[in-house]
Specification:
Blueprint lengths: L2 H8 L1 H10 L13 H11 L11 E6 L2 H9 L10 E8 H6 L8 H19 L3 E5 L4 H8 L5 E10 L17 H4 L5
Antiparallel strand pairs: 1-2, 2-4, 3-4
Bound molecules: flavin mononucleotide (FMN).
Length: 185
Amino acid sequence: MTEADRTSAAAPNEVLAAIRSRRVVRSMSDRPVARADLETILDAGRWAPSAGNRHLQRFVATDHPGTLRVLRMLSPGMIARPAAAIVICTDGALAVDFGFRPDVPGPWIDVGTAAATLMLAAHAIGVGAGPVTSFSKAAVATALGLPDGLQPDLIVCLGYPAPGGPGPMRRGRRVTWQDLTTFVP
Ligand SMILES: Cc1cc2nc3c(=O)[nH]c(=O)nc-3n(C[C@H](O)[C@H](O)[C@H](O)COP(=O)(O)O)c2cc1C
């Protein structure tokens, strides 16, 4: 496959543009997130790469104002007032069934690939998204009535972007790829 073939097959320019322009959104309008948009984002989640292709993550989605209020109360890191949220949970029992030892990083890394995929999909359709990991897992599990063994690991806040509100967490020079990369022979 030539470089040109690869370019046309995967439309990398659009993908790269989306990757580069996605920013965490912390100012969200109270307009409800259309169910079709929520489903598009959730559908993208199943395409996230996962260790051994095991799909140990489960997505618990809500656009219920009361549930969102409770999630905010339990999540000091939730600066946004989201109109919807997807809680990425890991099924620990399934991980054990598949032979993952508790200390292996795969299932945990999968939380990140799922979050990145959900946020990029949201961005692609004009829905703002932001991740939150600063929350009480036990309290969120209880509030959502999660079954034993399903652990909430990351909350993706969702809502249509609104003007104003909190900006980026750390301003300054954007890190370059050279800052992050070392070529080795
Ligand atoms: C694992 C993880 C946890 C995060 N937790 C929070 C959080 O609790 N609250 C928040 O506002 N942002 C959170 N963020 C978002 C980061 O602050 C954000 O990605 C970073 O500042 C860069 O901004 P950008 O994604 O808009 O470029 C988290 C990001 C990651 C990857």
